[in-house]
Amino acid sequence: MQVAHLPVEILRQPVPLSITESWQKHNTLDEVIEIEFTVRQAAPEAISEINHDDFISCVRRRGQFVLTSSYDGTVRVQIVGETAPIFTLTLDEQPKVVEWIKIGTSEAEDSMFITGGFGQVARLWVWNVAKASVECVAACRGHKETILSLSSSTTIAGCNVNLFASSSFDSTIKVWSASPEETDLSEETGGISHKRKSENKIPVRIPRLTLAGHRNMVSRVCWLADVASTPKLISCSWDQSIRLWDVGVGAGDQVVAPKCGEARCIMVGSPLHDLSASPNGILVAASDNKVRRYDLRAKDALAQIGFQGHNSWLTAVAWAPHRPDQFITGSVDKVVKLWDARRVSAPLYDLMGHRDMITSVDWAPPHDNKHYILSASADGTAKIYHYPT
């Protein structure tokens, strides 16, 4: 072992001050710097694919079930992550849109969904899991052009109103009963239930309410819960407007009030293809490749414009159900983008793989602590991505 011998002069020098003592001696104050950051997350990973023989027009999820519609004339239900459909429903017309009404909590409880499309009729279907049967219980007639979107009031948490809304190329929005029983024909038809032999005696249902005000096709309508817990409808159109509608329905009321109508109109300045509503704001997808975010609680409802990353029309948008600051968009440019609402300059991730325009996007709620992003395309596929969170 070697021993170092230091000069006596060095050993007699004072011990250096600590950092704290040095700050105190020189009257140096702490300066606190706040840094905001976002933890980087793993990229979404494609885990499965749903295939149709033609253009897939819509994809919707409820629980672990995925509902798709295609121009090949079929509607399919499939479980997230599985390759084979539970069933395929063949229609006499090309379906444009689908929407879930409810999912049974057990095999003894029926599930319900709606289809609509080029036949101008919204059809209400009951899926009996125990019997492995699907039956059309109502043909909802009233639109004069293609049905472009459907929305169920059951998408509002805690809302017991059993209604659904439809929007159409005919520039109108209609509100219908979503009950499988025939309960909404008495006033219009004198209590007579109309049935068409050509539809195997499927009851024909009429709308409870028609909302007119848009001057071009209504590309999207959805239910919106306001602070008073009174459901409203919000819609967007190719007439470049967003409209808020008071339909006069209470949280536990099945009756639509006669004095209903437009409560607010916001002009955007570009044709609109889709919207997504949540307590975090209204997102709209426009033809100018931009996403706009509105806060309807503000008097002027100024738009937060940004999120410019697509190279063509935006066709679809959807808020994340589990992250109030994230959403996805789809475009004619074949790409799905994942965004953070606090970061307008660039998306978090680009989800590639589709060979044609994106027609619809949605999120699957957590199943086994996993989250999923869904996208449908004109290439005949719907992709399911696992999103680690």
From TrEMBL:
Name of protein: NLE domain-containing protein
Keyword presence, Repeat: yes
Keyword Repeat found: yes
Keywords carried by this UniProt record: Repeat, WD repeat
WD repeats: 140-186, 211-247, 307-340, 351-389
UniProt xrefs under InterPro entries: WD40/YVTN_repeat-like_dom_sf, WD40_PAC1, WD40_repeat_CS, WD40_repeat_dom_sf, WD40_rpt
PANTHER family: F-BOX AND WD REPEAT DOMAIN CONTAINING 7 (PTHR19848:SF8), WD40 REPEAT PROTEIN (PTHR19848)
Species: Mesocestoides corti (Flatworm)
